[in-house]
Design brief:
single chain; 290 residues; alpha/beta; Rossmann fold; Alpha-Beta Plaits; 2 domains; six-stranded mixed sheet; four-stranded antiparallel sheet; 11 helices; 28% strand
């Protein structure tokens, strides 16, 4: 399977935070969800991916090309959607098109006007009067009108109401009907990824904890419920983290098979959500010894 992106042992240090030996890949033709708590390193990783930050060490390749040596050629093939408006808000979509279209050799006016009509966006109105949802649709419009092979989305549904969020996700589903397209979708709204993501990459405190197929991930992990008298110093070590109450415990395991071997039918094991995995991992430590 071809990888569109490969991060290999990438580090980037700041005064109070660092990305530490980050390695993961993004597979061609799929949606990869990128999750992590605020401050975990998502935005830093995306800035490195876009070559907006210089890495301290390691290697990043995109489309099999070295990022440092082929920056312009790579960006011709990428569409980027940021969570905040980065356009001059006194301009209209028509005026912005005149500025942006010449930047891309493969700009496609047919695509541009198709999505302009589909999104019901006013072409001549200054964008400062747009709602957040309209601005997000506009950002997507400009990101995809040069028919990019790889689309990077940084919190594209943040702050949108449920209707707009659903419309954005349906658009991404439409884009992915072309199996040559690849999407990297960074978000803290994990329910959106339940709808569209094929793979999940999870960053925690500057480290990649896992990068796996979503269905495989939700099979390996489980929410475990049982009586407190089942817990002792040894059994508690088998969980990522535990929440205890007067009536029992609830915990996250990263190794469902091992948990079944240890506890048998004495516990209930349920399929977790991505939100469950994030919540318990932030409280505990992701380990699994087979």
């Amino acid at each position: 399977m071809t990888n569109v992106v490969e991060f290999n042992n990438v580090t980037k240090s700041f005064k109070n935070f660092s990305l530490d030996d980050v390695s993961f890949s993004i597979k061609k033709g799929y949606v990869t969800g990128f999750i992590g708590a605020n401050g975990a390193g998502k935005s830093t990783t995306i800035k490195l991916l876009m070559n907006l930050l210089r890495k301290d060490s390691g290697n990043i390749t995109i489309f099999g090309l070295d990022q440092d040596k082929h920056n312009q050629a790579i960006k011709e093939r990428i569409g980027f959607v940021y969570d905040e408006n980065c356009f001059y808000d006194t301009l209209s979509i028509r005026e912005l098109r005149k500025i942006i279209a010449p930047m891309y050799q493969k700009w496609n006016d047919n695509l541009f006007y198709k999505y302009l009509d589909q999104f019901s966006l006013p072409e001549k109105q200054p964008i400062k009067g747009f709602s957040k949802g309209m601005k997000m649709k506009m950002a997507i419009l400009f990101a995809i009108s040069h028919d990019p092979e790889f689309i990077i989305m940084d919190e594209p549904t943040s702050g949108l109401d449920p209707v707009f969020r659903r419309e954005v996700l349906e658009l991404l589903h439409e884009i992915m009907l072309d199996e040559q397209k690849t999407i990297f979708f960074s978000t803290h709204i994990t329910t959106d990824l339940d709808r569209i993501a094929d793979y999940i990459t999870y960053i925690h405190k500057g480290k990649i904890l896992f990068s796996k197929e979503r269905e495989e991930l939700l099979t390996e992990y489980g929410i475990v419920k049982g009586s407190n008298d089942l817990l002792d110093r040894d059994t508690e070590k088998e969980f990522v983290s535990i929440r205890k109450t007067n009536v029992g415990f609830e915990a996250l395991t990263s190794c469902v098979k091992k948990t079944k071997d240890i506890f048998g039918d004495e516990v209930l094991i349920e399929k977790p959500s991505l939100e469950d995995i994030m919540y318990y991992t932030n409280k505990g430590d992701l380990t699994c010894t087979l």
